[in-house]
Amino acid sequence: MQEQKINVSSETGTLKRLLVHSPDSGLGKVVPSKAQDWLFEDIVHLETIRRKEYDYYTKLLLYFLDPEKIKGRLAEIDDKRNDYNFFKPSSKHFFQSTNVIEIEWLLAQILEDNEIRSKLVASVCAIENCSYKVQNELLNIEAHDLANVFITGSYKNAGMLFPRFPILFSPGI
Q1: How far is CA 162 from CA 4, 28, 31, 158, in A?
Q2: Amino acid 39: pLDDT
Q3: Could you give the CA distance from residue 142 to residue 94 in angstroms, rounded to a whole number?
Q4: From its phi and psi, is residue 39 left (phi > 0), alpha (psi between -120 and 50) or beta?
Q5: CA 47/CA 62 separation, integer angstroms
Q6: 123 HSE (CA, 13 A, CB side)
């Protein structure tokens, strides 16, 4: 194995790509005993975080990192009749930038590979002590929905299957 040298001459530079994660319903499932460990200081209002912070921040990032995704489209993007689909990773109208990369969208792309999907579902189910039945159900969920399950820990009306992944998807990390 060849040794790689890492050289950082400055902690600042030109931002080229960034991973982001849209606030999701898993935020409402933070239990008080874990709030401080997961860096939550207060109860959050999901819609406020989404519309007044995340959506605005994402548009700003796209303006600088992937302008063709947003240029000339602000009225359309901000139109409430479009149900904010531009910011929803499971929507066909999602921005799908290769420079402002939404983690849920990226995970869904990865889960399209059946071999990776099988191994990841088996691993998560082993860690979370899920039943064989739950494991089989997860294997049959569409990739975007499965990515959302992995991040939020819940699936539609089935309720909470396991705690959200605090290490990967908590604010401040």
Answers
A1: 39, 14, 13, 11
A2: 53
A3: 17
A4: left
A5: 21
A6: 7
Q: What is the dihedral of CA 94, 97, 101, 105, to 10 degrees?
A: 40
What's phi and psi for 121, nearest 5 deg?
-60, -45
Task: Tell me how far apart the terminal alpha carbons of the chain are, to the nearest angstrom.
Answer: 31
**pTM metric for this prediction:** 0.74
55 Cβ neighbours under 8 A, 6+ residues apart = 84, 87
Token readout for 151 is 């991040």
CA–CA distance, 108 with 146 (Å, rounded to integer): 7
Over the stretch 17-44, which tens digit does the pLDDT of each residue have? 999 988 766 555 555 555 555 555 556 6
Q: Identify residue 59 by its one-letter amino acid code.
A: K
Higher pLDDT, 69 or 2: 69
Query: Could you give the count of Cα atoms lying within 13 Å of 12 in the half-sphere of its Cβ?
Result: 0
The string of DSSP letters for 64-130 reads HH-GGGTTT-HHHHH-GGGTTGGG-TTSTT----SSEEEHHHHHHHHTTSHHHHHHHHHHHHHHHT-
Q: Which two tokens stand for residue 99?
A: 């420079």
